[in-house]
Amino acid sequence: MSSDGGDGWRKPSSSAFSRLVNPELHMKPNLPVGIIGTSIFFLVIGGLLWQKRTHERQQTALNKPPKSVEELLIDDQ
């Protein structure tokens, strides 16, 4: 057995197309960029959920049955 270690998991050569399509595989991790990107992702998801919630509230408010005359008279007093 030799102690040189052999090839092991050497990095295969990549084309320019591969680097263009999958840049995350060819660059070093960057913590500040990752934190900013994750924050923006969760802000977008939160905004979409908020819009869905307000739309559902508006729809339920529009679909309520109209009040009867008795209820309107009681509310006026």
From TrEMBL:
Disordered: annotated span: 57-77
Transmembrane segment boundaries: 31-50
Pfam family membership, one: DUF4500
Taxonomic superkingdom: Eukaryota
Keywords: Membrane, Transmembrane, Transmembrane helix
Protein name: Uncharacterized protein
Species per Swiss-Prot/TrEMBL record: Ceratopteris richardii (Triangle waterfern)
Lineage: Eukaryota, Viridiplantae, Streptophyta, Embryophyta, Tracheophyta
